Structure formats: C-alpha cells, structure tokens
Automatic annotation (TrEMBL):
Residues 296-376 form the tRNA-specific 2-thiouridylase MnmA-like C-terminal domain. It catalyses: 5-taurinomethyluridine(34) in tRNA + S-sulfanyl-L-cysteinyl-[protein] + AH2 + ATP = 5-taurinomethyl-2-thiouridine(34) in tRNA + L-cysteinyl-[protein] + A + AMP + diphosphate + H(+). It holds the Pfam family tRNA_Me_trans_C. Its EC number is 2.8.1.14. This is Mitochondrial tRNA-specific 2-thiouridylase 1. Gene3D superfamilies: Adenine nucleotide alpha hydrolases-like domains (2.30.30.280), HUPs (3.40.50.620), Translation factors (2.40.30.10). Its main location: mitochondrion. Keywords: ATP-binding, Disulfide bond, Nucleotide-binding, RNA-binding, Transferase, tRNA processing, tRNA-binding. Transmembrane segments: none annotated. It comes from Sinocyclocheilus grahami (Dianchi golden-line fish).
Length: 409
C-alpha cells in the first residue's frame, strides 16, 4: 500500500478553494483545510468581518470530513503588507496589496506553517494557474535555500519549476503569483489548473457548496479608509495644459493615475495624469485618453524572476522580446526588456499604454509562462510631453532684438 500524501489547502470560504479541497480529496490525498485571518476587522470601521468567511470554510471542511484549522497573520500582514502599502502611498505610488499578500503571507508564512507545523507534503490553493511539474513531482521536492548572490551560479544543476497561465485565460491568476518564491512554487499544487470558472461552479453546485460559500462582495470607500491611516494633506488640482487651478483634493495618496477626479462645480470629467508630492499638486487632463496619460517606457526595481535567474537570452544579450501587463486582466502587450547591472529592468512597450502607474508591478510573460515581476519605480515621458517637445523644436527661434536681417547668400 502506497503512502497517503498530506496536502494542506488554503481555505477562503469561497467556491474556488472549496472545489480545490474537494478535488484533492478525490485524488486520494489526506487533506487539511486552513483558514487565514489576515486583517483585524475590529480596526476597520464599516467593513464586514472575516468571521462569516471562516464559518463558510469550516462548513465545507465538515462536509468533506477533513480537519480544519484557523491561523492568524494579522501582525504579519500589518508589518509586511499594509505598512509597506501606506509608505508607498505616501511616496505618491499606487501599490498592489494582492501581489504582496501572496508573496509574504500565503506563500511564505502560510507555506511554512503548512510544512513545518502541520507536516504537509505539499500545500494547495484555489488559484487559476499551473506549473511545469506533475503533482507527484511536488512531493519529491526538497528545500533549497535561495541564492545569496544577485544571480544563481549557472554551473549549479537545478531544474526550476515554471509558472504557466491557467486553462481559463479570463480567470488566470499568474499575475497575482508573480512575486512568489521558487521554493514555495515547487511545493504547491493548483487543483484548478486545467479547469474553467464555469466548470468549477458546476462542481460546487453538484457538491452543495453554493449554498454554503459566501458570494457577497464587500466594497469600501477607499478615500475615507486610507484617511484613517494617513493624515490629510490637501493640495491643488492643476490643469496639465495651462496650469490653471481646478480645485482641491484631500491628499495625493487618495488618487491614482487614470482615475476620474471629483471636482466640485465641474460638469465635464477630468482625469488624474500626474502627481507632485513635493508641492502636493495633482495634475489633470480634460479627457480619459489625454496624451498625458500615455507612456511606453518604465523602469522596475530589482526584478523577481520566478525561476530565480533571468532568462539565458536576456543575460547573454541584455535585451529580450516578451509580453507585459501591469493590470491583471489587461491584454498582454509586446515589449522589449533591458537588464541592468543591479537586477532592475527597463521595459519598452511596442505601443504606449494608458495610466502606467508607479508602485504597480510590471509582470512579464514569454508565451504561456509568467516570468516574474518588478515594481514600477520610474516612468518615461508621456506622449503629451513628447508632443510639446516636438512642437518646440518645430518653432523658429525667437529674435530678442526684434530685427529681421536679410538672409546671407
């Protein structure tokens, strides 16, 4: 009789994680469900607590006759995700807490808890993603410490596990997994890898999960929420075209590039195109597709490669053609990537994109493979700036002496 593998499944109380646990049970694994509490709802006014989600996760585990645990990462989430989020907003950036939560909480603390505390042979989540290894290969992996140098020794023989898009491209979640470690990926199973969302819903309905899993979405007023943690810093809304003051805002951190600005007395919509945190000015353009919103170049911080090393092509030539996105469901855009000595990259897009945003993550793909991501820290010039520069170059020089001499033959 073979050894029964122990898999710890992250349970959110939703359909995806519930079906993941069901599929793992059907595969013959010994499954333990764990609910993570990442946010202390008592600190947040007007937002529903996680107690209902935890109760839903417990009910599913009971239906599947599997052990249930609850673990709190409220402190870790505050120090490693939320505090960083606040610092990013104060710098004028717009962070992505979902990517950072996966990196620091689910695929670090939860992964270590599953393996070290619960003795799991592997962990599983309900993400729509797949890897280059079969499930049985997951159980044969051993822990290998990350490299201490910038790049791994090329002579070290190790076949990295690749992260690929899930079968359901509309639900693919590799974007949110683009910062996780190679070690966690090597020990993770994605039961929904080859399934579509519609089919997962069908499985859930047949299993009786739909009546259990909470489908409620909780919306929060972001401006009031963030002002609970950062002091208001009023500033001016300024027209990017003529420098005219349009109104006032409560703080640049309540606004992100591309969003519509709420200005009293304005009938036509204006959109945020830039921010200056030294003056507090937030610059606006009069149309949603204003050229001040479009750029084609950006730089990241040190890029996180899921395979731990940059692709050989990029290391050899310092340039590589691939695909880019900085929002989960945006279409993939062709780009050229340049590798810098400090591990950061420059990304040059084939076409300008609207509202590239510092603090968001530049996620790169090569075919179906998600290569990894880097935080956007610097943007190239906007199309508006380039157009103004071209206009200035095409203008004749001013004659300060107001004289008009005859041309010299």
């Amino acid at each position: 009789m073979g050894v029964v593998r122990h898999v710890v499944c992250a349970m959110s109380g939703g359909v995806d994680s519930s079906v993941s646990a069901l599929l793992l049970k059907r595969m013959g694994y010994r499954v333990t469900g764990v609910f993570m509490k990442n946010w202390d709802s008592q600190d947040e006014r007007g937002v529903c607590s996680s107690e209902r989600d935890c109760e839903d996760a417990y009910k599913v585990c009971k239906m599947l006759d599997m052990p249930f645990h609850q673990v709190s990462y409220v402190k870790e989430y505050w120090h490693e995700v939320f505090s960083n989020l606040l610092r990013e907003y104060e710098k004028g950036r717009t962070p992505n807490p979902d990517i950072m939560c996966n990196k620091h909480i689910k695929f670090k603390h939860f992964y270590q808890y599953a393996v070290n505390t619960l003795g799991a042979d592997a962990m599983a989540t309900g993400h729509y993603a797949r890897t280059s290894q079969e499930d049985e290969e997951v159980f044969q992996q051993k822990y290998v410490p990350p490299p201490r140098t910038l790049f791994r020794d090329r002579f070290e023989m190790r076949k990295p596990v690749r992260l690929y898009q899930g079968a359901d491209r509309l639900k693919d979640q590799t974007f949110f997994l683009s910062q996780i470690s190679q070690d966690a990926l090597r020990h993770t199973i994605f039961p929904l890898a080859g399934l579509t969302k519609d089919f997962v819903k069908k499985i859930a309905a047949e299993a009786g999960f739909q009546s259990v899993c909470s489908m409620t979405k909780y919306n929060r007023d972001f401006e009031n929420f963030i002002l609970e943690y950062i002091e208001p810093k009023p500033g001016n809304f300024v027209s990017v075209e003529d420098g005219k003051i349009m109104g006032q805002h409560k703080g640049w951190f309540t606004l992100t590039l591309g969003q519509r600005a709420r200005i009293g007395g304005q009938v036509d919509p204006w959109f945020v195109v830039d921010k200056d945190i030294t003056t507090g000015d937030v610059f606006l353009g009069p149309t949603t597709n204003h050229p001040a919103l479009f750029r084609d170049t950006m730089q990241t911080d040190r890029f996180h490669w899921i395979a731990e090393d940059p692709p050989v092509e990029l290391v050899r030539t310092q340039m590589m053609e691939c695909l880019f996105r900085f929002i989960n469901r945006m279409p993939l855009t062709p780009c050229t990537v340049t590798l810098n000595l400090d591990g950061s990259v420059w990304v040059m897009l084939k076409e300008p994109i609207r509202a590239l945003t510092p603090g968001q993550f530049a996620v790169l793909y090569k075919g179906d493979e998600c290569l990894g991501s880097g935080k956007i820290i610097r943007l190239g010039p906007t199309q508006f700036t380039l157009q103004k520069g071209q206009n200035c170059l095409s203008c004749p020089p001013k004659d300060t002496n107001q004289q008009h001499p005859e041309p010299v033959n």
